[in-house]
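Why should sequence recovery work at all? Because a backbone constrains its sequence more than one might expect. Tight turns favour small or flexible residues, buried strands favour hydrophobic ones, and helices have their own preferences. The token representation captures these environments compactly. In the example below, the structure is given first.
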């Protein structure tokens, strides 16, 4: 009899005694590509995008994928082919999306620290919109645009001071953060942008945070922005675009989050309730499109039993997945061992990096043996894209499961890649 069990409602299944991602065995992937490695499900990524597209996208409404979540070129291309635009925060991200053939008219550019060069380049390529995060930035854009004699399309990023209820490092819509222009100063910014010759004020933008697990903050933000738009109108400032940012959370553990469908429906309703239907609207989603489509496979090097604790030492570390160290994030860890005789132990799953913060999971119960493969879930977003070479460790390969085949989409770094830019004097 075939026994199938979905792990954490994701594409990982326990089938016929082995762990499979979209019907490809994790063990085979680990054997063929080595560990650690990232594995993504094409089906899961396109499935998430199609869901929000079906519910939300129209002539006037678009989803722009937030490149920072996972910037692998194959993933960007997949989303481009499905009709996505792109939300970027650096020239590196701009290069990536131009490389896969994205239309600059479907790229928005956010970030608090845009340099003169960054602004000049984005104006010259004809970007859809620069999301401006301060009056100082607005002045710089105006100066560059007048020098180039090209109108710069801008949206003012406001900071609506809404608590999204997420970890403090990813709650960006509060006045205590560096993001956006607060409600007290925003009128000055809008007035300045409205009157400058080479600034084309097209919209308003906000992004209140990430891993938001309820719908209320999203709705509150729409209502707050509708009020601002009214206030602007009474000052003869008319906008065409509202960029609502991203932030929809995903299931990591047993946290309940709204589905993409519920989120899309709630946003549609909030747009209608606030009479915003005439505006062009952009959503900048990252995590909810790719987060649960990715896994990190890692091998158990040692099981170290200490008097205080048991440590399962694996070959992936905080350099591959920094979320547990940085945000105290919880990722599901499953062991794909076939040997059911292994005793279950309470353990910390830790990497080889020389830091106490180098843990992937704490106080986990696992039946595990040396050389077993562990699968860490929800590693599609903010895992590979936040990885580093700390301890001079090469970045792992990335693999995508496409139509039942495991295909490499980023080769493992060579050690020599790590110092190829260095100069011995
Ligand atoms: N738009 C802007 C302006 C953003 O700053 C972000 C994320 C997004 C959109 C996409 O948000 P999402 O839909 O992915 O929540 N490294 C953290 C998350 C940082 C999010 C930064 N901004 C983590 O691993 O939880």
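From this structural description, the recovered sequence reads:
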């Amino acid at each position: 009899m075939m026994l199938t069990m979905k792990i954490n409602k994701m594409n990982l299944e326990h089938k016929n005694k082995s762990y499979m991602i979209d019907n490809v065995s994790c063990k085979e992937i680990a054997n063929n590509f080595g560990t650690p490695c990232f594995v993504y499900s094409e089906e899961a990524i396109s499935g998430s995008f199609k869901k929000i597209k079906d519910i939300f996208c129209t002539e006037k409404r678009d989803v722009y994928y937030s490149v920072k979540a996972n910037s692998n070129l194959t993933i960007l291309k997949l989303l481009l082919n499905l009709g996505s635009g792109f939300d970027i925060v650096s020239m590196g991200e701009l290069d990536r999306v131009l490389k896969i053939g994205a239309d600059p008219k479907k790229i928005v550019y956010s970030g608090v620290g845009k340099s003169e060069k960054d602004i000049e380049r984005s104006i010259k390529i004809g970007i859809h919109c620069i999301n401006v995060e301060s009056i100082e930035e607005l002045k710089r854009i105006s100066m560059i645009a007048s020098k180039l004699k090209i109108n710069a399309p801008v949206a003012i990023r406001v900071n609506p001071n809404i608590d999204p209820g997420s970890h403090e490092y990813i709650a960006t819509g509060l006045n205590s953060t560096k993001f956006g222009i607060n409600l007290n100063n925003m009128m000055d910014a809008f007035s300045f942008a409205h009157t400058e010759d080479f600034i084309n004020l097209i919209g308003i933008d906000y992004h209140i945070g990430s891993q938001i697990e309820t719908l209320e903050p999203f709705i509150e933000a729409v209502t707050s922005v509708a009020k601002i738009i009214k206030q602007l109108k009474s000052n003869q400032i008319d906008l065409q675009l509202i960029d609502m940012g991203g932030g929809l959370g995903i299931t990591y553990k047993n946290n309940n989050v709204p589905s993409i469908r519920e989120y899309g429906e709630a946003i549609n309703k909030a747009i209608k309730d606030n009479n915003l239907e005439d505006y062009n609207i952009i959503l900048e989603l990252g995590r909810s499109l790719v987060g649960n489509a990715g896994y990190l496979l890692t091998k158990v090097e040692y099981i170290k039993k200490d008097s205080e604790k048991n440590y399962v030492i694996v070959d992936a570390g905080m350099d591959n997945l920094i979320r547990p160290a940085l945000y105290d994030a919880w990722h599901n860890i499953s062991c794909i061992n076939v040997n059911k005789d292994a005793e279950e132990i309470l353990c910390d799953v830790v990497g080889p990096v020389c830091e106490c913060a180098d843990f992937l999971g704490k106080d986990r119960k696992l039946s595990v043996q040396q050389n077993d493969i562990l699968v860490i879930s929800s590693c599609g977003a903010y895992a590979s894209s936040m990885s580093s070479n700390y301890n001079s460790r090469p970045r792992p390969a990335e693999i995508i499961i496409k139509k039942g085949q495991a295909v490499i989409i980023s080769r493992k770094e060579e050690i020599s890649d790590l110092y190829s830019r260095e100069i011995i004097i």
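A few observations help interpret the result. The chain has a mean pLDDT of 95.
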